[in-house]
Amino acid sequence: MNKTEVFLKACTFAVAGASQDRSKYGNKVFRAIVxxxxxxxxxxxxxxxxxxxxxxxxxxxxPVVPESLSIVTPPxxxxxxxxxxxxxxxxxxxxxxxxxxxxxxxxxxEAGLNVIDDGSCILVSxxxxxxxx
Length: 133
Hints:
Blueprint: H1 3-8, E1 12-16, H2 25-35, E2 39-43, E3 49-50, E4 53-54, E5 68-71, H3 75-88, E6 92-95, H4 102-110, E7 114-116, H5 122-131
Parallel strand pairs: 1-2, 1-5, 5-6, 6-7
Antiparallel strand pairs: 3-4
Helix pairs in contact: 3-4
């Protein structure tokens, strides 16, 4: 199984940078995971809800530890999110294009996480998954 398949096979997901603004990728990624029928939590410290789902300020505030975390944040925020993910026990992280940070990638790999940071986008993978069903 490749890294993407491992990420998508998880039971629980979170999106760091889930936005209330439907034009932003954090919102698009969140909506796509919801539409795929997966359990997903929005992470946004400035929002109380995203697309009708209660939003959480940090991973430690979630009711469960997500197995997979999609990150749609600026690189300097990605570093903080990765530290939270490592501390919480998240297994898989997918840094969406533009969210990648060398320091965060290295820390995540050293902690043993399954890391996707190759410029691929979860929206493409979910679209392929949906069309193959």
